[in-house]
Amino acid sequence: MEFSTKAGKLQPQQPGAQLFVCTAENLPENASARALFDSLEEKQTFADAKNTVSDGLQAVAVVRLEKSDRAALNKAAAEAAKWAQNQAEIHVCLNAFPADQAAAVAEAFAAVFGNAAYRFDRYKKEAKPAKFAKAVFYSEHESAVSAALAVADAQVFGQTLCRDLGNAAPNECTPEFLAQTAKTEAEKLGASVKILGKDYIQKKMGSFWSVAKGSVQDPYLVELSYFGAADRTAAPVVLVGKGITFDSGGISLKPGAGMDEMKFDMCGAATVISTFCAAVKLKLPVNLIAVVPTCENMPSGGANKPGDVVKSMKGLTIEVLNTDAEGRLILCDALTYAEQFKPKAVIDVATLTGACIVALGHDVSGVMGNNQDLVDSLLAASRAVDDKAWQLPLFDTYKEQLKSNFADIPNIGSPGAGTITAGTFLSYFTEDYPWAHFDIAGTAWKSGAEKGATGRPVPLLLNYLRNVK
User: Fold this and answer.
1) Residue that finishes a domain, picked among 106, 128, 144
2) Is 324 within any annotated ligand binding site?
3) Is Secreted a UniProt keyword of this protein (predicted)?
4) What is the pTM of this model?
5) What are phi and psi of 154, to 5 degrees?
6) Annotated binding residue at 231?
7) How many domains would you assign to the chain?
8) Which residues contact 441 (CB under 8 A, 6 or more apart)?
9) What is the pLDDT of residues 178-217, one digit of tens each?
10) pLDDT for 22-45, tens place per residue?
């Protein structure tokens, strides 16, 4: 998807489809657009028509914005995107808005348009790429709009990479494939990459290795580094992503129905890799490190068994009561690995618990952490781009649900508050730095007719990184 901007007004004779974005206070000057605007009934916000021009018909549409928050902009853009997908190129008029509003509208519409044009058909004999390929934004505030489009372009780039990784078949997207893709994409942008393999993991990361050893696929620990702050020695933000490229449940085998969707269990890793790359693409003034533990969780003669006791990188022993609670077993060692960077903040992202779907459904990610300022910043970033998240509590009393007769902690708690006890488990490994945890089990992908990765919460995390002080 290509975005560009032009100074000045969108002229009626400009070839291609035309979209006018306006409000009741800022009406379009174009006669056709004004007529469409006047035709809107009270609850209608979008209208389109085809005008006769010298060489045929020209598509024209108008969007009436009733609110200016990002949620309203995203909703309006989604309605316009249904129309835009039938056009090869659209010209968007933003002349109704002052600089800051024009930039906000451009960013929201471009991001929605870019995601609407997404297709994943590389396994199909006949690929059908999106017709919609280009959007040109017209505004007298060209500089502000151009900067906003750069942000939208980076977000779309990140979400596209995230969705491509999530949608890839698990026989293609193995741990090695995920690690090599992260390396290729990060190095392409000028970032540094370090990949540690089975020998290091087996020797240093006993909890991570306990999950990985059940598969014939080798595990990897990926470390991506970018130093964009004026002070390259300043404490970095560290992103950690769960990279289980297929989760069978291990010996605690999952039900067969819907198990194909367990290829999405690496969407936390995909989010972290993609957010990192989007931030580097934008050249954000932040020091940033991404850490991705990746492996498969498979049943075999070498797999974890319920009752096994394993030793984490931190030195805590863990009783494995359920082998399907494997994400926290690989994350805890990655979170310990992150200590060496003396981080400003650590944010982990994981499709961790089905309980999060019970609590928050499929539209809201769960967030919790040990530092309220960090959580508040993430929630503000969530609201700013309408990538919804909700804070769950992390009281010390939840530790009472994590008791083992045979080890320091078990990998699952007693019944109730499954998402929170998973976060509580991780909190034992994050005591030495500000930390937040995102459970994206409900938001990372869609099921049913729209089955596929969503690219969330890339928008939220990218917006957070844009505002890190």
Assistant:
1) 144
2) yes
3) no
4) 0.97
5) -65, -40
6) no
7) 2
8) 350, 351, 352, 353, 354, 356, 357
9) 999 999 999 999 999 999 999 999 999 999 999 999 999 9
10) 998 888 888 999 999 999 998 899
